[in-house]
Structure formats: structure tokens, C-alpha cells
Here is the input.
Amino acid sequence: MRAAVLHEIGQDKLEVLDDVEAAGFGPGKVKIRVRATGLCHSDLSAMAGVLPQPGPFVPGHEGAGEILEVGEGVSGLKPGDRVVVCWLPACGSCPACKRGQTQLCLAGFLNAGTPNFKRPSGDVFGFAGTGTFAEEVVVDTGCAVPIPDDVPFDVAALIGCGVTTGLGAALNTADVEAGASVAVIGCGGVGISAIQGARLKGAAEIVAVDPVAARREAALRFGATKAVSPEELADAKQSVTGGEGFDYVFEVVGRSATARTAYENTRRGGTLVVVGAGAMDDFLQLSMFELFFDEKRILPSMYGGGDVLRSYERAIALWRAGRIDLEGLITHRVPLADINEALDQMRTGAALRTCIEI
Here is the structure.
């Protein structure tokens, strides 16, 4: 079968090969025929070595498709079922799951250390234990979540990561208060989803911050009341909040520099929500005095900060009701053979989300 492979961490191009085989099928596993997958910035971060991932590997973790085979002991799934790929399944028995914080379950991360694919030259890993830039993938049964027949594969793929992460940051982690002022720094697919979440919660002012003009224009279509470049943020802070700072600021870039900017633009007593996935050696510096004196809440948001399965169901319900726009997030479509074109679209900011059709 075909899959897009990164041979070495640090390379910026993928090679689409036809000698890759989905590996590991057996008890408790399912084999999925991937039909659509989104390109998330985390894929680029893993390719660059910002996020830890053994190589060689097949990127992709935001996918949807249909079940081809089910292993022994698998219940509730059968060949032909339509599913979304969940890269962070909950085991249900660890301390985090028992506390109701299923998004902090580590079972999914353990999957990342087991190869999902093989080639004649050796094992190949799948990013985040999945690897959806492939025609087929074998995953644990918990990674395959059934979706209704009326949800298109491309929409379902986005729910598998970016939409759930962004919406959840606003709805679960921040629990944005109606009438609040909000700033969202970084307006790709996840940032736009956070904007839609803030709008759903009744935020009065939503300022989108992004260096790319096309993304700023898109943010206004999705619910932002104002869109500015990073250089214009100070003026927006003054005009919208009288210089006090925003009630909520979402950092959706994953860099200490933008997190520091987000902190400085959060009002005293306000909330900074860290959504972007950054590097382990990129440290955010804050003084002990400002932490105490400003009493700003800093809330990291992992995969939307809530139960993933309920978040999927909520996103589908909101989409069906016309309360959120998911199709509009897909600004580009490319076949798997042109995956490097999708990477360029992400790097330049030309795309909110590129759908890779497989």
C-alpha cells in the first residue's frame, strides 16, 4: 500500500512509497482504510523534532475512514463501520481516567513507541501511535470511534484533532464567560475552532491575531469581531479593553515568545489558555512577583481539556445544528501523492486545513 514516510527527523519533505504495510494486526486491534486526513501543525512539529517521535515514521493523526478488519476480542466494531481516528484513547482504568480526566491518559502515548508499519528495509512508526498519511493503518480498538453515516470523512477527520482541541479549549478549559473579551493568537484550524468556541459561549469581543492576512480574513468569517497582525495587538488591547487586557487569551502557536505575549495581554485576574504544543526545551519565563501580584490563571489545554468521546459527539451535534462551520475550515484539498504541497500550504499559512484525500 501507499504511505507518506519521513525517513529522518529534521527532513522537510515526505516520500510517498508503495512498499509500506500496516503492521501489528491481532487481538484488540482494528485495521482502518483511511479515506481522509487533515494536516495538523503537530505533524510538522514532529517532523522537525519539536515533538518527540521515533523515526522513520508516517505522519498524520487527524483521520477518518472505514473498518476493514477487526481482531479477536473487539466488540462494537465490524468491517464497513465508519470511524474517526482518536490518537489519544482513554484506557478507562488509570488514575487520570478514574478522576474523569481522560484527556490525560497516557495509554495513547505508549502506542507511539510501537511500530505501526513495516517496509522491506525495516519497521516504520506512526505519528502519535496512528499515522494517517497512509491508505491503511492498524490501531488499538479504542482509537477507532464510530461516526454517524451523515458525517463526511473530511469533516470527521477534523473532529479527530483540530476541532476538538480548539473548541474544547474555549468550552471546557476556559469555560469562557458570556460578554467576555477574548484574544486568540494563532488562527490556523485550531485557533479558528477556539474562535468558534468563544462565539458559542457568548464572548462579546473576539480579537484574532495572526501574521497571515488570509487567516485574519477567515477569522472574521468564523466569528472574530476584529482581526489584527501581531504588531497591531497592542492597539487592539487599548481599543477593546481600554488597555487593561483581555479576559481570556488563547495561545495557539506553541512557542514561549507568543505565550509571553499572551500573558502580557491578559488582564490581571484573567485567564491565559495554552493550546499550542511546544518543544520540551522552550521555556516560558515568569517572575514570582508577577505570578503573585497579577493573579492571572494559566490553563494548559490538552486535546480540548475534556472527555474526548463526549467532545466528538458535541462537535457533531453543533455541526448538524449549523452552530459551527467545519466544511469551511478545509481551504485546500490534495491527493496523497501531493502531500508535500500540503506541507508548503501549512508552512506558509495559506491553508487553515488541507484535506489529504486518500
Notes: DSSP finds twelve helices and 19 strands in the chain. The longest strand covers residues 29-38.
